[in-house]
Automatic annotation (TrEMBL):
Reactions catalysed according to its record: L-glutamate + ATP = L-glutamyl 5-phosphate + ADP
Species of origin: Lederbergia citrea
Origin organism lineage: Bacteria, Bacillati, Bacillota, Bacilli, Bacillales
Protein residues bound to substrate: 49, 136, 148
Protein name: Glutamate 5-kinase
Function: Catalyzes the transfer of a phosphate group to glutamate to form L-glutamate 5-phosphate.
Family: Belongs to the glutamate 5-kinase family.
Binding site residues for ATP: 9, 168-169, 210-216
Amino acid sequence: MRKKRIVVKIGSSSLTNDKGEIDQEKLNDHIHAVAALRKAKHEVILVSSGAVAAGFARLGYPSRPVTIKGRQAAAAVGQGLLIESYIEKFSEFNIIPAQILLTRNDFSNRDRYRNAFATIMELLERGILPIINENDTVSVEELTFGDNDMLSALVSGFIHADQLIILTDINGLYDSNPRVNPLAKKLDVLEDITDEMLEGADSAGSKVGTGGMKSKLLAAKTALSLSVPVFIGHGNGPDKLLQILKGNGDGTYISNSEIGSINTSRQWIAFHSESAGKLFVDQGAEEAILYNGKSLLPAGVFKVKGTFEKGDVVEVFGANGLLGKGEVSYSSDDLKKAIENRSEELRSDSFVPSIEVIHRNRWVKV
Ligand SMILES: Nc1ncnc2c1ncn2[C@@H]1O[C@H](COP(=O)(O)OP(=O)(O)O)[C@@H](O)[C@H]1O
Ligand SMILES: N[C@@H](CCC(=O)OP(=O)(O)O)C(=O)O
C-alpha cells in the first residue's frame, strides 16, 4: 500500500472511563494500532480529546464539569496526564510525540495558521507524532472549534491528509441514535452528508464526549469539502487502523471522488478568514467568477462596503446573495476610486480595467 498521511481522531469516550480516569486498556489499544500504522510507513497525526474527561476526578468533580472554568481547569490537569501517558507508552515503540494545542484564533490569524502548518510539517518530516488538542484553557465558547471532530477535519484539510479516521464508542453512523432507537439502521458507505442525516444525528453523546454524532457528521462534511475521505467507527487490536485503511473497518465510510483538492491558502480564505468588507458585483462578473473560472475585475464591481486593506478577505455578493469570499488586491479606498474613475472614463468610453480585484486563485465559492 502507498504511504499515506492519516489523521486519527480519538474521542474522550474511547480514551477514558466515566469516573474521570484514563482507561489504560483503551489507550494501549490505540497506541499499538498507531504504532502498526507507522511501522507500515504511514504518516500519522493524532487529534486526541480526553483532557477534560481525564482530569475532572483529580479536581474533585463527581462528573464532567458543566461550567467553562470547571472544564478548563479539568483540561489543564487532564492534558498533562494524557500526554504523560502517550509519551510513556509510545516510547516502547521509539515514537516521540509532540503536543500541539490550538484555538480557533490560531486558524483565523494567517501568520499563526502558517506557523502551525510549518510546525506540523517539520515534525512529520522528522518522524515525530503530532498529538493535537484544543487549547481548552484559553478557549472561551466563541473561540472554540466547537469540538475536536471539527478540529480534526480542519487539520486533515490543512495538511492534505489522505484519510481522516474518527474513532468513537459506536460502530458508525445510524439513521437515528441507536441508544435511543433500537431499530436504528447502520449506514455503511456514504457519498455525502445530507440534511436528513444531520437531523437523525443526535448532538447528545456519551457521558464524557461532546457533540455526539452530529458534530462528527458536520466534521465529515467539512473534511469531504476539503477532499479528505472519512471513516467513523471503532475497532479492536493492533490491526484496527490498518484494517480501516484497507476498507475492512467496523464503521461508516464517507467519501466522494468528485471533489477536487483545495490548496492551503484557499482553505484559509474559505474556513478561517474573517471578512473585512463586502463587494457587490453585476451579472456579468457573477457569471465570470462562478462559472467561467475568471478573476474578478474592477469593471464588475458596482458597490464597496467597509474599510479594508490590500490582502484582506472580503465577501462578494451577487443579485441573489453571497457568492463567495476572496482576497482583494486593492484597499477599499483605491477600489472606490477605481469605480468612480470608471464612471467618468465610461462616459468618455475609454475605460480599461486594471489589475483584478480578486485573483481566481484567491477566490472560493460558498
Ligand atoms: N445517528 C447516530 N448514529 C450513531 N451514534 C449516534 C447517533 N446520534 C447520536 N449518537 C451518539 O453519539 C455518540 C458518540 O458521540 P460522542 O460521545 O461525542 O463521542 P466521542 O467522545 O467519541 O467524540 C454515540 O455513543 C451515540 O450515543
Ligand atoms: N478539548 C476537549 C475535547 C472535547 C471534545 O470534543 O470531546 P470529544 O467529543 O470526545 O471529541 C478535551 O480534550 O477534553
